[in-house]
Amino acid sequence: MKVKGYELKRSLVAFTFVAPCLLGFIFFYLYPTVRGFVYSFTDWDLFSTAKFVGFKNYATLFKDPDFWISIKVTVYYVLLNIPLQTVLAMVIALIMNRSGRSGFLRGVFLTPWIMSNVVVGLLWFWMLDPPVGIIDAVLVKMGLSKINFLTDTHTALPSIAMINIWRHMGYTALLVFAGLQSVPKEIEEAATIDGCGSVRKFFFVVLPYIRPVMLFVVVTTVIGSFQIYDTIAVTTKGGPVTATYAIYLFIYKNGFEAYKMGYASAASIVLFVILAFISFLQMKFFRANESDS
Fold first, then answer.
1. Residue 293 has pLDDT above 60, yes or no
2. Homologous superfamily assigned to 62-286
3. CA 71, CA 64: separation in Å to the nearest integer?
4. Is pLDDT larger for residue 204 or for residue 80?
5. SS3 (DSSP) at 184
6. CB neighbours of 206 closer than 8 A, spacing ≥ 6?
7. Which of 286, 253, 261 is nearest to 69 (CA)?
8. Separation CA 141–CA 163 (nearest Å)
9. Which string of DSSP letters, residue by residue, matches 235-254?
10. What is d(CA 95, CA 149) in angstroms, rounded to the nearest whole number?
11. C-alpha pair distances (Å), 232 with each of 10, 181, 280
12. pTM (two decimals)
């Protein structure tokens, strides 16, 4: 009986520590998700009573050309963002790993991530502005032509991707750096003794060992990339034409500008399903719970 009482006491103590996070998850994530799912089957304009319409919102959504444009733009952005951000983060992580305990170096790389998305967006908007932007001024000084980074349909989305890579690569590098720190030195030393060079050792010894960390990095960056909104809202507002009309902007405009909250909720649920499916495929492909240790 004493043992059971002790276990119950430990469980209550543990639950006491977990309860704040659990309540936050329920009220700020689970409840809004369930509510959004319910509203996706209704016609609701935020002011009047919601009317049940069944699958009408979903049927209209899949026929909406603007929805498919937003999906295409978002996928293109993800393909621009993820590979380059991951590679740069890996390079930065290796630099931090070689530099030992340099807090200054880590602070430099993390500074952009600490800044607000809106601040970063405004900063780069001013720097990339053709008439007064410092970047175009430098290009002209070098004898090159000005580039309409945010006002040309071909360069707008790559410019948005560049801005967000700059902001997030330091944080992503820190995650990879934490994984590199967990690699036993004995394994690297053994590989060196066996004649492995630095490049070969990284790809065939270190990288397989930190596979779970890399999976976490890729999954979180993919999910974050699909949620791009702040930078676009501050800089291009979805333009020029529809070059940067991402899915989150589509949801916002339908929900809070057109007041079609049920329709916007349906788009949100579709996005949730897409992200869940992509995350499942990534975990299956990378074997999330395994490392070659």
1. no
2. MetI-like (1.10.3720.10)
3. 11
4. 80
5. coil
6. 180, 183, 188
7. 253
8. 23
9. HTTT-STTTT--HHHHHHII
10. 30
11. 48, 35, 28
12. 0.89
